């Protein structure tokens, strides 16, 4: 067994199953599975569907400022391990009220422990530098609708020592299935997955 498998973590941030961002992420995963460079090196894709997770929002107890641990014992504990081990992290979310979904925002807030480790405790538990991509869809006519979400994701990646490599942002996509009517979007994420080198 090759224990140096490249780990891809895909984080699905929409509450809507098989919605627009789900379809984009699935297309990215299909590309990854056809990426000869990654499959030759050994590859593991793990997916986190935030809507299926059982976890509390951050309760701001500030315990993580003391030792970098989160005291809340729920599904986030398993997610932390996956976030630490991943070589590439792909995050998807619809735009909700000009930002990421509340589901994804709650997930990110629970990563305050990584912020404390990096900036308060100055302790590096994540040894490797990694890359991240962000996938989003929004109904609005204006591409600037993604500005807030990009800032949130940038900071999320930053505390995890993840380089914000690329985003795939599609506006004027609203109803379920809209993204399927624009196959070029799915192709774009597929091709990225198929060709990315880590
Ligand atoms: C609660 C809610 C808030 C939304 N807020 C915005 C918004 O601020 N700007 C926008 O362009 N679209 C907004 N939308 C539309 C979604 O971003 C759009 O439908 C997207 O394609 C959904 O992606 P999904 O199918 O992956 O969930 C909102 C939709 C919902 C349900």
Question: Which fold name corresponds to the CATH topology?
Answer: Rossmann fold
- The CATH superfamily title: Flavodoxin domain
Quaternary structure classification? single chain
Distance between the termini: 20 Å
Write down the overall geometry. globular
Uncertain stretches? none
Number of strands: 5
The biggest beta sheet, please?
Answer: 5 strands, parallel
Helix content: 25-40%
How do the strands line up in the largest sheet?
2-1-3-4-5
CATH class category name: Alpha Beta
Number of individual domains: 1
**Proportion of beta-strand residues:** 15-25%
Bound molecules: flavin mononucleotide
Based on secondary structure, the structural category is alpha/beta
Rg value: 17 Å
Number of helical stretches of at least 4 residues: 8
Overall residue-averaged pLDDT value? 96
Order of helices and strands: EHHEHHEHHEHEH
CATH architecture type: 3-Layer(aba) Sandwich
Model description:
The protein is of the alpha/beta class. It has one domain: Rossmann fold (3-Layer(aba) Sandwich). It contains eight helices and five strands; from the N terminus they run βααβααβααβαβα. It has helices at residues 20-33, 36-41, 64-67, 76-85, 102-109, 112-120, 147-159, 183-195, and strands spanning 6-12, 43-49, 88-94, 130-137, 162-170. The protein has a five-stranded parallel sheet, with helices on both faces. α1 runs parallel beside α8. The longest helix is centred in the N-terminal third of the chain and has 14 residues, at 20-33. It is globular and about 50 Å long. The two termini are 20 Å apart. Bound molecules: flavin mononucleotide. Flavin mononucleotide binds at residues 14, 16, 19-22, 94-98, 137-140, 145, 173-174, 176.
């Amino acid at each position: 067994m090759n224990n140096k498998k490249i780990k891809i973590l895909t984080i699905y941030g929409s509450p809507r199953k098989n919605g627009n961002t789900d379809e984009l992420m699935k297309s990215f995963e299909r590309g990854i599975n056809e990426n000869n460079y990654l499959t030759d090196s050994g590859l593991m894709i793990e997916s986190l569907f935030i809507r299926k997770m059982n976890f509390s929002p951050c309760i701001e107890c500030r315990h993580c400022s003391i030792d970098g641990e989160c005291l809340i014992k729920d599904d986030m504990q398993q997610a932390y391990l996956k976030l630490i081990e991943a070589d590439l992290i792909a995050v998807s979310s619809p735009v909700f009220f000009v930002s990421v979904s509340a589901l994804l925002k709650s997930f990110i807030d629970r990563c305050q422990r990584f912020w404390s480790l990096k900036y308060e405790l100055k302790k590096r538990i994540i040894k490797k530098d990694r890359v991240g991509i962000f996938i989003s869809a929004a109904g609005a006519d204006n591409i600037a609708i993604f500005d807030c979400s990009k800032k949130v994701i940038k900071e999320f990646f930053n505390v995890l020592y993840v380089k914000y490599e690329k985003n795939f942002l599609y506006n004027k996509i609203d109803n379920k299935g809209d993204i399927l009517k624009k196959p070029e979007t799915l192709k774009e994420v597929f091709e990225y997955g198929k060709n990315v080198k880590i």
